[in-house]
Every structure is written in structure tokens, then in C-alpha cells.
Amino acid sequence: MDISDSTERKDDLKEKPSEAATQDVVFGEITEGGPNYRNVGFPGTVILMMKTQIGLGVLSIPTAFNSLGIVPGVICLCVIAAVTTWSDYVIGAFKLNHREVYGIDDAAGLMFGSIGRGVLSVIFCLYWVFVSGSGILGISIGLNAVSTHGVCTAVFSLIAAALGFGFSSVRTLGRITWLAWIGLPCILVAVMIVTIAVAIRDRPAAAPMTAGPWVSDVKIVGNPTFTEGITAVCNLVFAFSGTPGFFAIISEMRDPRQYTPAMLICQTGVTAIYSVVGCVVYYYCGSYVSSPALGSAGGTIKQIAYGFALPGLIVTTTIVTHIPAKYMFVYFLRGSRHLTSNTLVHWASWLGCTFGVTVVAYIIASSIPIFDGLVSLIGAMLGTILCFQPYGCMWLYDNWGKGRSSSRTWLPMVGLSILVIVLGTFLTVAGTYGSVVGIIKSYHQSGGAKAFSCADNSNST
To answer: Which stretches make up the Amino acid transporter transmembrane domain (predicted)?
Structure first.
């Protein structure tokens, strides 16, 4: 669909939101015979946002606190939460101002032209494919833990990839919402089981069995190397890196004007959960915290926790596979009748997109089977670019022309936008360096995880 035509109709859509059920600027005409891409209500929006955020990232927070120390860790967590909440807010405002925008690449196209659109398109797809890979890795770890390494890890990775492909092939987020209602409580229950277990155990599973009571070596302020510190910060960024997926969620909402309150509920809940889980698990485990954190209590508790977590990890993989597949699907068929009709081209394109994303994600999961390393690499190399810099540019694009006379907050907001751009750029460069160094170090360590290995990957500490 021509963007100029879309822009001319955006005011009509604001005035007549009921028409969005049949005619949408992005998806075109939505008929009863095809998929309804505008069917996510307010509760569904909140649960999808929270499930997009709460997944694999929460499992790396205690180890990030171990590197930074509990006080700097909490401060960094809150700062990243605040910045990403602002970024999430900008998404909602930008979408209401530019209804033709479906993804971050459309926003880049408005701001920077075809080159910007192309660059952000590649980064966006790479990011979500990498996250899908981390989801497959997380599921394989869970299956290993529950089965006590019942089969080769490569087989578990294939099972995880098949599950991700099957569920992500559901065509609309509205129909995936019910999965999020199952997945979010499951992973929260799993995390709380481990949190309670480490609090009542006499020592974490990885701690040495010495005589007398064990005392946690928790650090108030850590003393990490630059590489360790920046890697830990990027792990925290990854925990909030569902941000670029919010474009897809608001695009499928029945009423996009409800986006901001839904987002604030999501971010408040996510930040509270991350803070409690990170502090409690790290406080009681100290330097013996496992990665992923669900293994910190060891033995039976680990099996129970992963048993509860597996549905949540599967749903996370479903959503993060669906988002890049849907992006490519819309990109290829936008403006065509095949986008919203049950034609052979429609189904072949859709399943081809979900299958392609799954295959590449499987290769990534098998090539970098180190949970912390993969998480920090995603957070640094791709997550920061999609959670920081573009939103400073988006605010400036919509508000620069208003000038100082528009309000007293104009100049501070300009400063904040520039600060977010600079901070994101620093984290991208420094974090990628630190993550790559960490992954190389892990490969060189004796007994370290190897690519396409059959070894049990559920015993990392």
C-alpha cells in the first residue's frame, strides 16, 4: 500500500477506530474469511508485552548481579528499565502519529529514507532470529534438566525448534494470546520456586560441601573487569529487550490508544519481578549462582522448576519466532490480496517465513550453546540498537520542529533523546566486544560448551 495514501487516511482512522476491524492502514482490508490482524484487546496486550519481556532474560539477572554487585546491579537494572520504558512510550506516540508504521524499519524509512529502512530491517530480523535461537537453547536446557540428559542435546534442540515452528505458525497475535496466558504464569512459578528454594536451603547447589553453616559471599559492590562488567550490563539490557516487539503488538491492537497504560502496567510489573528475583537469588547464592538461574537450587528443585518453566520457554520461543516471521511476511505481501486471504501464496509465504526463521535460529542455538554468552551477545550487538538509539531519533523527528516555544519540557527531552542515542551507541560497541571476548574465553576453557555438542548443557554455573 502506498505510504502517501496511508498517511492521508490516518486521521480518519483516529476518528473512526471501529473501522480498523475491516480496513487497516498496514494490513489492508480484513475480511471474515481471512485472519483478523486487529484482534488484541487490553488484557491481551498486557500479557503479550509481559511475556515478550519476561522469558530468558530473567534467568541471567542473578549472574549479572554477581559481576556488578547487588547495589550497582539494582541501580543498572532500574536505569535500563527507565530508559526502555521511555523507548516503549515513544513507540506508542510514534505509531499514533504515523499509522502506516508497522515495524521499526518503517520508522527508520520515515526518518532516514531507504538506507535507514534497509539497515534497521536487517538488524531487526537478526535480533529476533538470535532471540529465537536463545529460546531454542533455553528449551534444550530445560529438557536436559527434566530428563537428566535423556538424549543427545542436539536432539533436544531439534525438538525445541519443532515446537517453536509449530506454535509460531499460528497467524495472528490475537490467537497466540491464550498461549501467553499459560506461559507467563508457568515461568513465574518456576522462578519463584527457585527463589524460595535457595532462600530455605543451607547452601546453593554449586557451593562446596564444607562443615558448619555456609555463608553467602554476596558482594555489595563488585569489582569486575571491563569485559565482565559490560557483559553483565548487556545481560540486563537483554532482560528488557522485548521493546522492538511492541511495534507488532500495537499494530494488532483493537484500540492502539490503550497502548500506553498497558505498557506502563507491563514495565512496572516486569521491573518489580526482576528486582525481587535477582536480589533474592543472588543474595542466597552469591558467586555460586547458576546460569540459567533455575539450576541454582540443584537436584530435584531444578527438575521441578524446569518442568514448570518449559511451557513458558516454549511460549517465549513461539512469540520471538512469530515476530520476525510476521515482519517478513508483511514485508513481502504488503499491498497484496494474499496478505489477508487464505490463498496458496498466503500459506506458502507464511509457513516459509516461520520455517526459515526456525532453521536459522536452530543453527545459532547449536553454534553458541553458552547461555550467558549468547544472551549478552544478543543484548549488546543487536538489543541496544533496537532498544535505545532509534527512539531518541523518533522523538526528535516528531518534535524537533516544535521548538522551545512548544513547552518547557522540549529542551530537557531533546537532551534525553541525545543521551539515549549516545548511551545506546556506547553499549553496542563496548558490549559486543565484551561478549565476544567472553564467548571466546568460554570455548577455550577446559570442558567448555562446544558447538553442535551432545553434552548436557543444563549444568552451567
So the answer is: 44-436
